[in-house]
Amino acid sequence: MSDLILxxxxxxxxxxxxxxxxxxNALSYALIxxxxxxxxxxxxxxxxxxVVLTGAGDRAFSAGADIAEFSESVKRGPDIAVKxxxxxxxxxxxxxxxxxxPIIAAVNGLAFGGGCEITEAVHLAIASERATFAKPEIAIGxxxxxxxxxxxxxxxxxxRALEHLLTGDSFSSQRALEMGLVNxxxxxxxxLDSAFALADRISRHSxxxxxxxxxxxxxxxxxxxxxxxxIESEQFARMAAAAETREALDAWLxxxxxx
Length: 259
Prior knowledge:
The protein folds into 2 domains: about 1-205, 2-enoyl-CoA Hydratase, Chain A, domain 1 (Alpha-Beta Complex), CATH 3.90.226; about 205-255, Lyase 2-enoyl-coa Hydratase, Chain  A, domain 2 (Orthogonal Bundle). Helices cover about 55% and strands about 15% of the residues. It has helices at about 30-45, 65-75, 80-100, 115-120, 150-155, 160-165, 175-180, 190-205, 205-220, 225-240, 245-255, and strands spanning about 5-10, 15-20, 50-55, 60, 105, 110, 125-130, 130-135, 170, 185. It has a 6-stranded mixed β-sheet, with helices on both faces. Helix 1 (about 30-45) packs parallel to helix 3, helix 2 crosses helix 3 and helix 3 (about 80-100) packs parallel to helix 4. The chain starts with a strand and ends with a helix.
């Protein structure tokens, strides 16, 4: 099971790689469970300040859920299917969305179904020029189940999202960029370097401040502006009470005074 996710650390950034290239990095139950366990360990590791997530092989970031596996859950009835499949996948994407350290998807190939939903959920995404995306669940008679009916409309707008949710047609990295699904497109050979460079640009800042920004933006997205501003104030108050915040302000003022 440990080989389902390859995990290495480069400086302050953890690189996690879906490692089922022969299955286009399909998201089996065991792979999802392993990913969740690794995220728990990373969150508690003060030396890791960001995560880059990619897929093994040359073809896929992730082609989505393991259909052969979840179809067995479906055969056992809706209660089992929801528990084994839907709740597991939704817990994974929700965990990524609310993770206290930035997660950057380095989309190296196919990002279909659950792979697309992971891209929607993570904080930032860089796509290879070779990357392709799709919401193909409708082609097998189901809805997206890892949050795709909710996050894609919020990212892209209702009509653009529904076009892809209802047709199941694949779309290019350029279309993903236009929709706000990814932050940028880079040459394939530069994908990981670009993702690590972005992680480094974030990691130079206070880890506490980064976590509070992520929390405020994630929690505030789906509430009223008044509630969002209250969340923002709450996150600031947590930083204002921290010794490292006061030390950073004192250092900035001292540096300015010495100019």
